[in-house]
Amino acid sequence: MTTTQNEPLFNHIRFIMVEPSHPGNVGAAARAIKTMGFQQLCLVNPKSPTIITHENAIAMASGATDVLENTTIADSLEQALAPVSLAFALTARPRYIGPPPKTIRESACIGAEHLRMHPTGQIAIVLGTERTGLENHAINQCQYLCYIPANPEYSSLNVAQALQLAAWELRYALLEQLDFPLVVKTPGKILEADLPATQSEIQSFLTHWEQALTAVDFLDPNHPKKLMVRMQQLFTRSQLSHAEVAMLRGVCTAMMKTARKINPTTTS
């Protein structure tokens, strides 16, 4: 379990699906929520009362069955929003009258700031049906209308895909708010061969490299110009490890061996 999954603020985000009809989308939504470290999924008046136990929902959850099993069912959006202090209506359709519109990224930042200022608050992302999206009466219960700035010629997203994007943006905003690392650090054994090579190893390799380049007639020792200086800069920037130096010295040995086969008079 990651640090962010233990962070209390991640339990203050609720994803609400209004009148879902496809079990697969509900399962995919549970998976999307869990991958981003959240837990709360709420369904408002689903088409089937057993939608979360449907085989397609379980299959699409792909291991996020704990989120699926803990999904709450509400009779109305009012009931689902009861504990919520800030709600965002996710929709692709603009409204001339209604809450102020924000991009999903702006919305996530507003949500993260809301939780920073009000640690006991609850945030909701509200999504509508596949066919009609959110109705105006549902949108008007939210403080903000948020949208995903997709291709204007084809902005239709599957509801579970839209939820995944919303969950990612919220996760990113919360990680920044909490000053958590964005890159997952996985523990593992550090091999000695992967440690940085010493300057002594690098200089010995460069001497060997110069000999190999001379053996294959790439370097003229009488007119070296700045070739080896540039080579030294190249390998210094690369910050070679012990294993990489050993590998390159093996290349040098092979180059010199091949050169001697072609021209037996070539010196080592």
From TrEMBL:
GO biological process: methylation
Major place of residence: cytoplasm
Record key words, sorted: Cytoplasm, Methyltransferase, S-adenosyl-L-methionine, Transferase, tRNA processing
CDD domains tied to this protein: SpoU-like_TrmJ
Record-annotated tRNA/rRNA methyltransferase SpoU type domain positions: 13-167
Entry's localization field: Cytoplasm
Catalytic activity: uridine(32) in tRNA + S-adenosyl-L-methionine = 2'-O-methyluridine(32) in tRNA + S-adenosyl-L-homocysteine + H(+); cytidine(32) in tRNA + S-adenosyl-L-methionine = 2'-O-methylcytidine(32) in tRNA + S-adenosyl-L-homocysteine + H(+)
InterPro entries from the UniProt entry: Alpha/beta_knot_MTases, RNA_MeTrfase_TrmJ/LasT, SpoU_MeTrfase, tRNA_m1G_MTases_N
Keyword S-adenosyl-L-methionine among record annotations: yes
Assigned EC number: 2.1.1.200
One Gene Ontology MF term: methyltransferase activity
Keyword S-adenosyl-L-methionine assigned: yes
Complex formation: Homodimer.
Annotated function: Catalyzes the formation of 2'O-methylated cytidine (Cm32) or 2'O-methylated uridine (Um32) at position 32 in tRNA.
Family statement drawn from the similarity comment of this UniProt entry: Belongs to the class IV-like SAM-binding methyltransferase superfamily. RNA methyltransferase TrmH family.
Name of the protein described by the UniProt record: tRNA (cytidine/uridine-2'-O-)-methyltransferase TrmJ
Protein source organism: Paenalcaligenes hermetiae
Gene this protein is translated from: trmJ
